[in-house]
Amino acid sequence: MGCWTLEPKISLAIRVNPLISFLEGTASPFHQISPNKTSQFLLHSFPFRSHSNTLQRKRRNAWLFTPGPLLCLFTSAAISTAPQPFDKISLREQSLENRRFREVLDIINKLSSLKPDILSVRMVHSLVLKVGAFAHLPASTSLLIVYARSGDFQSAVALFGEILDKDVIVWNAMMTMYIENGCLGAAVDFFVAMVEEGPGFDSRTLVIAISALSNMNRLEQGQILHGLSVKTGMLSDSFLCNALIDMYAKCGELSSSECLFEAMQFKDLVSWNSMITGCVYNNNPQKSLQYFKRMASCERQADDVSLSCAIAAASTCFGEWITGQVIHGWGIKLGYDESSHISFANSIISLYSQCGYIEAAQTVFRGMIHKDVISWNSMVDGFASNGKIIEAFDLLCEMQLAGRQLDTVTVVTIVPLCAELMLLSEGRSIHGFAVRRYMGSDLSVVNSLMDMYMKCEKIKAAEQLFNTMPDRDLVSWNIVILGYSQNGQSGEAQTLFKELLYRYSHYSLSTLLAILPSCSSPEHFQFGKSIHCWQLKMGFSNYILAINSLIFMYINCGDLKASLSLFSRVSASADTSCWNTTIAGCTQNGYFEKALEYFNLMRRASNVRHDSITLVNVLSACGNLELVNEGKLLHGLSFKTLEGTEIRVQNALITMYGRLGEIESAKLVFYSSCKHNLCSWNCMISAFAQNKESKRALELFCSLEFEPNEITISTMLSACAELGLLRHGKQIHAYVLRFGFQKNTYISAALVDMYSNCGRMDLSQQMFHNLPEKSVAAWNSMISAYGFHNNGQKAIEIFDKMIESGTRPTKSTFVSLLSTCSHLGLLDEGQWYYNYMLDEFGVEPVTEHHVCMVDLLGRSGRLHEAYEFIKQMATRPKPGVWGALLSACNYHGDLEMGRKVAKILFRTEPDNIGYYVTLFNMYVAAGRWSDAAELRRIIEDRQLKKTAGYSLIDIGFG
User: Fold this and answer.
1) Considering Cα of 524, then 526, then 527, then 533, what sign does the dihedral take?
2) Number of structural domains in the chain
3) Domain of residue 933, residue span
4) Which of these three, 372, 401, 435, is where a domain ends?
5) Is the pLDDT higher at 131 or at 636?
6) Domain boundary residue among 372, 398, 422?
7) pTM above the 0.85 mark?
């Protein structure tokens, strides 16, 4: 026909099963849908006048095909429809002259109702030929269908070629057979040939063709068939309308489905089900529930398809938990008991799991008489999503023991769980299982495995999977790019992104979110700006996630002005996540004042309110700025708004009080909390260690209720180093070796530092030289160790080797170097390192460097030069800088300079008794007893007391 504009005949059949499961539009790319037969269309005959005169037959067409939608339901609540080709077939009415073939036809029909084997089919074929029934169209068509059911597709095709007088029903059966065997493209080509060369078509033909196009997601061709249906007057067929509704929904044109549905004069149950499933498929569960309620108001009794889909919609729609329960009760009232209706029970399991009622979901699961693979997958996913990791893995084992084979959906459900919890061993086991079960070529399985390896920092394994993939989709590229970005391999991520741009023309928001984390430092700033331009070009500028990522990128690259300018453009409509991104970015990059400033602006905004993430970042800013009063106000605010009961806020409070030196307040938060995780213990132990309470840190470590991790170990090694407890340090070292923590760079550096501080420089050197890869922390610890043991020349040599190895020095490196130069009087070397650390190594001087320089100049007797150095500082000097100069004045007996510096310190830190004691000693040394007595009176009036000194002796074997 002239109006048919499909593409030319496709030579390669598309191997897509017509019962294919579809991915939900907004779900994770690793959630698949498995088919579950719940509904059929019974398509009655509709004779159509063909262009060929050979079709003018008087007998009626009474074949019933079932190519209507098939509801596919899984835990993601995505819905799919597909044809059921040969169920419930009625034969043509037989004339008197054909009744002699009735017995043969009965045999074929009985064989068709079973799962026939090839041998039986061929025996029946021989019988048909023997009695001469091959020319009888019902018999030959039934034989064709039996061949298709047996899986002998080639014989069915050959048989079709032998039938001479083919009518529409035979052609329809052949089209349906193509679809059942996954040859969707070939089925469409067959339809074109049927229209151009065959007997014409009827409404069933259009239904079959539309079913193939909907599964191929070919909207334009489907619209042509819609027009053809209108032109030929077949749109009055409700089955054809239902197929079109299903096609539009699958192709993302839900509005067209709705228009067609509303225009239908007579709506059957399948019509309603098609709309309900179509809405869920298009990620509109709220509208799906509206159609379900409309159907109920029309007194149309729901079936298990309607109920299952409506419950799935309720489980994915926020605030519809009660509606789901009501539908559950209504289903039981209608006789759809979850113990015998599998699809209904599966949707109930998903509902209760997603609403957090995992025990109720488990009760439904255990009560099911028959469970399919979707039932097991739903329960595994329910355990996983509710944090019951052990139960999820136990159910996997039970699933295998029950003889139920894991499918690709099971794999892509459990692998992300391994990725999230860093369960590399379990993930590898599942990888091996997938290879043994020939799932290794499944795209969703490979994508989930790559994601798992990337999150477990096994980049080489992920690369190997990616490089050996025969076919890659955009998700595959996004996973690897994001994995590179998150594992610090920015260059590789950017190179792969450029290759992606060369190969693809269409991208997703996930592509942008994957590449932006690679621009996390000033050296990648230009590339980040080019990504911003690309984002604008691709039309992602209206996505809040894209804006948040760009704001964070600019802050990480040091362009605070650009990030805040970008935020100001959306501040009027910014949500909580956007504010949190800005505040967190400022906090993590040291812009603490800006973080507090934007928190105050957020508090004034009427359309947003802070959450626990906001408070965690603002508390960190207060701790770093040493703002005691502001920190306590935030503590009160957190409990006033109930965020203070969240464990991460409590951990942030402990950390803040630890930095502020408010150890009693930190203890109060820790011991008043009824819930602790390992992070809580680490925060409290660190608070003790930071405030010279290493003994209490060790005592708390001994009562630890969790298995210690790398942070716990490194903190305890620092405590042992401070206390000089070599015996305890060795015990922790043994624990490190036993559990393989020695590969952690911070732990290896802490061991070097611990042995050095405990006087075992030989063990410290041995630890350092045995490291296979020396981190910057290890180099810093070794430089500090040599400086601590008065071997400045060796410290300088280690620094030179560090530069030769390509390791970039940090702020801590120069603190150790300058401190060493100060203690050993290496004035020229110290001045060179300070003057060139910014120009040569890009390290910005901070307070610790200033203190070292003042101490270096002061020890060398250059007090006035040190005083001028402080006066010329770009930032306001901290009390520690003046304190270093005061100590130098005491050492050299410069009373006048000492008095001047002491006055400054008394104003900035009036309660620090150390400054008073230093000035008092200077007065005594100079013989100015009256001034010394006056200063003592001031100390007594202010009730200042010096902390008593003490010595520790470790009784044991060192």
Assistant:
1) positive
2) 2
3) 846-958
4) 372
5) 636
6) 372
7) no
